[in-house]
Amino acid sequence: NAMLAWQRTAFHFQPQKNWMNDPNGPLYYKGWYHLFYQWNPDGAVWGNITWGHAVSRDLVHWLHLPLAMVPDHWYDINGVWTGSATQLPDGRIMMLYTGSTEDGVQVQLLAEPADPSDPLLRRWAKSEANPVLVPPPGVGLTDFRDPTTAWLNPADKAWRIAIGSKNQEHAGLALVYSTEDFVHYDLLPTLLHVVQGTGMWECVDFYPVSAELAAGVGLDTSAAPGPGVKHVLKASLDYDRNDYYAIGTYDPATDRWAPDDAAIDVGIGLRYDYGKFYASKTFYDPVGRRRVLWGWIGESDSERADVLKGWASLQSIPRTVLMDTKTGSNLLQWPVVEVENLRMRGKRFDGLDLQPGSVVPLDVGRATQLDIEAVFQVQAGAAAAGSVAAGAEAPYNCSASAGAAGRGLLGPFGLLVVADDSLSEQTAVYFYLVRGADGKLSTHFCQDAFRYARIDLNLHAFLITSTLICTILNVVRSSRANDLVKAVYGSSVPVLTGEDLSVRILVDH
Ligand code: DQQ
């Protein structure tokens, strides 16, 4: 039991037991942050889905509450699935979610707080009008789910919601409905957006971001399009289980959204996260004046291991989401500032000189929870050396690379976390710089949970040091367990001239 307790997270949200998946209906109400989530009351695998519920004052410490909604009507008896909250200007909350009916058809349902004077919103009343939406003609009966938070269209002052689906040609898409009372809806003739080849769009999210507001300030979902306001469209792709977003422009007159750059459209371009992160959802926090992102992190354990330990999954640390005003091409995400209140003691390691192939131990005692900030600077000489090999190394891709064991001229460098003294277990988190055929440096940020022995000896033979040879002989891994997913993942990150390479790592058992 002590071992199992050690494996559970301490500051990432987890229910007390059993299976959890998507975050649902996050909102702030009368002094409390509310998190609902997909939960199985009967075990540590997906099924019997209900809405779990927890509240917090600070997005970090949580109080578990009774289930908010359970499958108890013909229209949701196969599961109370994912949904979103909308807070009306008069303070009322409209909770729209998907039900899987007795026939397995996906329908949209409305619930409201049964007692709006209860800040904890413990009881929910499902609408007499349910289901408020059924799949429209041409939409598959099981391809119609996960309504968004509603936004006010400034042109006609009616609410809009989007719902994800796919068409018969496997294009992912978002339908748009107009409503004034959240009970009656009109399907609009145009789609919010559609992208060929991306399949079913789950958990669509749609929200404005500002390129002009002071750093850190977010926008309410209904903030009107205007100067400096962009709209983010996110879809969770059923087929590859990743959350893709794109930044673009929303036209209230047509209720269409178009990406700024068609080459990095939803589902083919940027992701929120390159590790395990799915079915995410944002909400506007009126107190912190910020947009906050929650995402479901499925553990990489096998189903057998999940059942043995009695739980599966956690939620990401909530992240503040902002437009990267320096690049204009991507979002910035950062753990909510409240996480920093958990810091107890600090240790600094200044001015370390990292030589190629070296591993420098950092003594952090026996801590198993860490909030690490590290800044790396590449020496001018090393950067120049990189230029000698101009064109030789590109293209680079974390997942297709040899991981942390694949040495180049300017990488990998970073941290080995959750490592034991002999480095027989470790997880490498690192940067890898590559000079492309165009002579420009590109920066990649990767995590290697499975350190490959595979390396291209011909290309790199001249770089191999004795350290690296030891590494090849003892294939080192993030865990001794052999029944979990171990992969190398990551992405390129935009780094502007003169910027340091900094990393924040939260270790939570
Ligand atoms: N999870 C829910 C669905 C959603 C999926 C069911 C995404 O509503 O599409 O548990 O993980």
Considering DSSP H and I runs of 4 or more, what fraction of the residues is helical? under 10%
What would CATH call the class of the largest domain?
Mainly Beta
Residues in β-strands, percent: 35-45%
> Which structural class should the secondary elements be placed in?
mainly beta
Radius of gyration: 24 Å
| Alpha-carbon distance between the two ends | 15 Å
Q: What is CATH's topology name of the largest domain?
A: Tachylectin-2, Chain A
What compounds are bound to the protein? 2,5-dideoxy-2,5-imino-D-mannitol
Oligomeric state: single chain
* Biggest beta sheet attributes: 5 strands, mixed
pLDDT < 50 stretches: 452-476
In spatial order, strands of the major sheet run 4-3-2-1-21
Q: How many E-type strands?
A: 30
- Could you name the CATH homologous superfamily of the largest domain? Glycosyl hydrolase domain, family 43
CATH architecture of the largest domain: 5 Propeller
Tally of distinct domains: 2
Overall shape? globular
Q: Provide the residue-averaged pLDDT.
A: 90
> How many distinct helices?
5
Main location: other
GO biological process, one term: carbohydrate metabolic process
Keywords: Disulfide bond, Glycoprotein, Glycosidase, Hydrolase, Membrane, Transmembrane, Transmembrane helix, Vacuole
Organism: Aegilops tauschii subsp. strangulata
Describe this structure in words.
This protein has 509 residues and is mainly beta. It has two domains: 19-339, Tachylectin-2, Chain A; 348-508, Sandwich (Jelly Rolls). Helix content is 7%, strand content 39%. It has five helices and 30 strands. It has helices at 2-7, 303-309, 380-388, 457-460, 466-473, and strands spanning 18-29, 32-39, 50-56, 63-69, 80-87, 93-100, 106-113, 124-126, 151-152, 159-166, 172-179, 185-187, 193-195, 201-210, 229-237, 242-251, 256-259, 270-271, 278-285, 290-297, 311-312, 314-315, 319-323, 331-335, 369-376, 410-417, 427-435, 441-448, 488-493, 501-508. It has a five-stranded mixed sheet with strand order 4-3-2-1-21. Strands 9, 10, 11, 12 and 13 form a five-stranded antiparallel sheet that branches. Strands 14, 15, 16, 17 and 18 form a five-stranded antiparallel sheet that branches. The two termini are 15 Å apart. The model is unreliable at 452-476 (pLDDT under 50). Bound molecules: 2,5-dideoxy-2,5-imino-D-mannitol. Residues 21-22, 38, 49, 81-82, 98, 145-146, 202-203, 236, 278-279 line the site of 2,5-dideoxy-2,5-imino-D-mannitol. 2,5-dideoxy-2,5-imino-D-mannitol binds next to strand 1, strand 5, strand 14 and strand 19.
